[in-house]
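One thing: can you check what follows?
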Amino acid sequence: MFESLTLAAIPPEDEALRPQVRALAQEVVAALSLEQRARSWMGHDAEFSRKLGAAGLLGLTLPQEYGGGGKGPFARFVVVEELLAAGAPVGAHWIADRQSAPLILNFGTEAQRQSYLPRICHGDALFCIGMSEPGAGSDLAAVRTRAEPVDGGWRLSGQKIWTTGAQYADYMIALVRTSGGPEDRHAGLSQLIVDLSLPGISIRPIKDLTGDEHFNEVFFDGVELPGDSLIGAEGQGWAQVTAELAFERSGPERIYSSLVLLDGWLAHLRKAGRTDDATAALVGGFVARLAALRAMSLACTARLAAGESPVVEASLVKDLGTAFEQDLPLAIADDLASHDEPVDADLTRALTYVTRVAPSFSLRGGTREILRGIIARGLGLR
């Protein structure tokens, strides 16, 4: 569909990271159940994140002068792939490593880079992202949270919702309006670094269908921010957040959310001794889709390695990837229900969790409708 989605291979020097990452991942998941491993995205383990930082596996794409690894996007692909495949808890460092650090590197001041990037690389500065708001849905241009300029800084008022990990985070990078109104759409939007320990900030966890509390409402009541909270130029927030979302949408994150469940089901099939053609076709179909999606994700990674921002291609990977992730638990549930064989309780619990959380896969990072609009524009259809 896109000429830029050409096959790419992981360079040998980046592939060489895999044994080290796999060993650390296996160490942390050894004591976890299948259900706990299925929570990899949301698994919060700050100690494990710091261990990754100590091993030089966070901030891999950042320059060495900021504490990073000085490597390219393929190195990070290997690390993320291994962690998610094992079901390691990545929630603590996830957003800072994937989005906040590249954003600060590309658009932040030198003082911001010196302040935040080394701590992100060590796993000592945890970030969340403030985008969604009540009433705005996935229409980020309709945000109403506002930062008014005051002497020496900004006064922030408003609300964010569905903010993953805010109750654990040290900082939020918030998309806010610094001029104009919602009718101005993209104009007047800026990004600010918000210290979540400041007075006037309230964080309220939201319990989801699984009983977990990963999402949050965050309220800002006249929060006083210093002038150096602004990232990039005032009014350029929309362009910056668009580039940021390319990092969020293009990687293996959007393919592997259900992978631990797939492994658990395959173990069940082997234990049950099922080798019939229908089962083989079902397994083969998902493996083929996974292989194709991985190749597409690697193609996007090659674009990032070339210094490009594959916004449209990343949207395609995310749309197809989350469809795969959502189809998998439904197919596994149908398969288990249609065969009279004992099912391990841990597999049942993992299946229940993934089935309940799967609807969010096509919401986080942009809804399916938003992504397809981006893809349509990229194809010249709108």
Summary: The chain has three domains: 12-125, 129-235, 239-378. The longest strand covers residues 215-226.
